[in-house]
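User: Can you fold this complex?
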Amino acid sequence: MTVVTNLDPKCRTSQQTPLDALADLVADDLKAVNEVIIQRMHSSVELIPQLASYIVSAGGKRLRPLLTLASARLCGYQGTKHLGLAAAVEFIHTATLLHDDVVDESSLRRGQASANEQFGNKPSVLVGDFLFSRAFLLMVDAGSIEVMRILSNASAVIAEGEVLQLTTTNDTSTSEQSYLEVICGKTASLFAAACRLSAVVADRSEAEAVALDDYGLNLGIAFQLVDDVLDYSALQARLGKTVGDDFLEGKITLPVILAYRRGSDEERQFWRRVMEDPTQQADGDLEHAIALMAHHATLRDTVDRARHYGAIARDALGLFPECAEKRVLLEVIDFVIDREY
Amino acid sequence: MTVVTNLDPKCRTSQQTPLDALADLVADDLKAVNEVIIQRMHSSVELIPQLASYIVSAGGKRLRPLLTLASARLCGYQGTKHLGLAAAVEFIHTATLLHDDVVDESSLRRGQASANEQFGNKPSVLVGDFLFSRAFLLMVDAGSIEVMRILSNASAVIAEGEVLQLTTTNDTSTSEQSYLEVICGKTASLFAAACRLSAVVADRSEAEAVALDDYGLNLGIAFQLVDDVLDYSALQARLGKTVGDDFLEGKITLPVILAYRRGSDEERQFWRRVMEDPTQQADGDLEHAIALMAHHATLRDTVDRARHYGAIARDALGLFPECAEKRVLLEVIDFVIDREY
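Assistant: Here's the predicted assembly.
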């Protein structure tokens, strides 16, 4: 079983992204984290490492653990507790992916059959639970009550965000504010926790912990906003995701909320028909939706909103001295916003 | 929102069971635990407490938290940490029930529509995750690293047991040993953890912690063995469960394993047809299965196996001095084995 990361030079394109630079900067730590991940997803019940490695190794960017590792360096941390915690963060992320794919009935994840498609819903639910539990064991090993509180709380908030998303799905009258609550919960809270915990293990001031939390939270919001834009963008094919997944599920994201708010009565009628009961969707509806988004510039404006949160993330790092880690963490913000996949 | 327990004298039959006696013995603590449960399942996302209380309040016996409370008294514990931990144990149990019902596609739980039937699979998966996370937050509040390790480990072992059960379902060649591994994981590990943690918070010797673990583990095995017998017993109707649920799902439990082992070639052919592909089941198959179990006395012998584990549980308590708590914990063993529902 090998864990594939973009550390492998053969996989690298000539254009090094800030994520590659980040992985280079913490290469030894990342290698150690990957070893912890492989070791801790082991179980005598063979289906568990089989399924877990299917998703853990499936070419994820390891963005969240990379944030933990870089934040720890930014805080001058010299110990090793951050390694297990970075693995715990990746396990929590993986567990939520497994459960999300079951909840969303997704058939693709990162360009290959999703775990639920490949192994069935039942093992996906249970292996998700297993990874959650192993994440908590990793935290216990790190021995910091405060870190456990941060990550347990993030997990509860993720679940709240996901449930809130369920209740807003198909509801075209969802407000931008309630959409923000959803993405703060389901995405940004784990980014925030991944960064904050490094300040805690490094025993830095509360001000620095809050700064890293703010960086992660706002980076996470920007990341999800752009993800939601990309779901309507042709370049999504490179992610292996079919364009329009959110549309097909009637998932209400900001590009739709803005198009609905800015649309004519006739357009709103269209949005209600296609989003409130996606089974009513017909050929050409997705194209019409994308045309309306273009007309009202809602994809562009959603990226602009992402830039706003990116700017907050940037300022949050202001109190840290200049260093290689800080430079790359700042570059990651722009990368997350300007990425095309 | 009210949490219904069998503390309510109006609900009590004239025959007081050892579980009622146990609840009486720790009545104040149980009331406090119920308050923690109500408080900690709160969320601003309304669907969460709605769904959580649907199952948490649905007349569960609170057996696992009762074990924690009684064990704490047995250990002479004077503090209050056991209250939050007992609530955490119930949350973990509830989360696994929610996920189980999704995995098993159950439509009934304790005589009413299961949460997945009532609210759908998606919120059941996510509210399960929420309760898991809140359980960990409760442990964090109790502040004992050792207790967190015990319960995180139990959670991972539960998931392993459930996955193992998936891989043995429909497999008539499942051995008694591998069935035992399944029920140790999915049921007995949480009973064991619920008891052991009380010795840890009470700061008692490792020998006492191990004794309580052994008591819980073996009680849990006995409990599950009898549960599996009751699934083929007419009295199950009183539990609100349809008789033969396990049979319909092709779930391989000890009554089936023994009938298969003891059966003729023709009988084994029957078991393979009905268990390996339950869609092949026809009218009269369940009745025939029950007749074969009666012929080979596999229900009786499964209860006998339960008695064996009950005896181990009994001896495990030997090193504790005589007291009311010990007496009731011993009575609970017999009750668990001899119950008819």
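The radius of gyration of chain B is 20 Å. Chain B touches chain A through 42 residues (CB under 8 Å).
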